[in-house]
Amino acid sequence: MITEVYLIDKRYDEALEAANSCVDVHRAAGQRRRLVDAMLKVASIHLDRDERYFALSIAEEAQGIIEQVGCRQSEAKILCLIAEIQLDAFACEEVPDSKSENRRLPGPLLEARAQAMKAVSKALMLAGQCKDENLRGTALFLRTQVLIHNSKGSEALRSAMEAEKVFAKVNAIQNQANAQILCAKLYHAFGDGAEAVRLARCAMNLVRQPGFEDPVTEFAAMDFLKVLEPISDETLQAEKTAAPDLTSSDSKSVGVGLDLGSVRSRLYDLIRNTIAGDEDIHADASLGDSGVDSLASVQLISNIGREFQVSLSPAAVFDYPTLRSLTQHVVEASRSI
């Protein structure tokens, strides 16, 4: 508790001293689980102080201890921290631009990327085994960042969408908003500015809810919105004081629900155009098997939104993976507007 008080005031030296005292006490008492928790706190403080070497050394030692204890949840937390430490290397080192002819990453960054993926992959497995959804969402969020550094945009978007869905399920509002911002940045990279704006605004509204206010995340969303659609500070301030639209939808009202038959027919054409395929798409066949991969799903959701004036979750294609189920979802979404 003393450590947390120091951290709130950003008194890192005092916080580190208090956390190290806890490590010494638990190590002497042979309380390995509490020791690992204390070591995680020490590693986190070192990371906040940009002391990546010390943070990684302590986190890896903690992992070795917890592997002997056999606590999957604690090990998953440690692995997430290790992935975060490795990802921090990309913020501290000069990374070649993606458009550069000499894109090859330096050896240390290649190693950091590989170690981050190894850590986050095992963290995902352990989080699933211990059924900790919040931890699984954290691992998915970190995995997204690793995939981005691997230039695997479509996989990164799918991972970010899944993280957002998991955080929404457990009502982790701040994490959900950050996942939406990450999704927005990926949509922007894919050229879908409208969806990027929608998600950034949704994230901003989420962290304005009473009891869930988070100025840091809100400002992150606002800054990204300025990149997407340059608007005045006065406009953003007016939006800040306005009642938030928590429906996460900027689409126009279509009144009564859409007709099931016409939606299915038009949706069939949209899917065919998206995958540029000639084969028939059966109502109950998997859209993934029909060729709708992660990248194609981005374009499909965007096209559906424009065609039917409805706002769907970026993960809708994965949640409703057949023509029949997706058609029903679009119709239901139109009725809820």
Description of the structure:
It is elongated, with a radius of gyration of 23 Å. Helices cover 71% and strands 0% of the residues. The protein contains 16 helices and no strands. Among the domains are: 152-250; 260-335, ACP-like (Non-ribosomal Peptide Synthetase Peptidyl Carrier Protein, Chain A). The chain has helices at residues 2-8, 12-29, 32-48, 52-69, 72-92, 107-129, 133-149, 153-169, 173-189, 193-206, 215-228, 233-241, 260-275, 294-308, 316-319, 323-335. With 337 residues, the chain is mainly alpha-helical.
Global shape:
elongated
What structural class do the secondary elements suggest? mainly alpha
Strand content: under 5%
Total helical segments: 16
End-to-end Cα distance: 47 Å
* Radius of gyration, taken over Cα atoms and rounded to an integer in Å: 23 Å
Enumerate the spans where pLDDT stays under 50 for 5 or more consecutive residues: 98-102, 232-236, 242-255
Mean pLDDT, all residues: 82
| Total DSSP E strands | 0
Describe the largest sheet: none
SSE order, one letter for each helix or strand:
HHHHHHHHHHHHHHHH
Helix content: over 70%
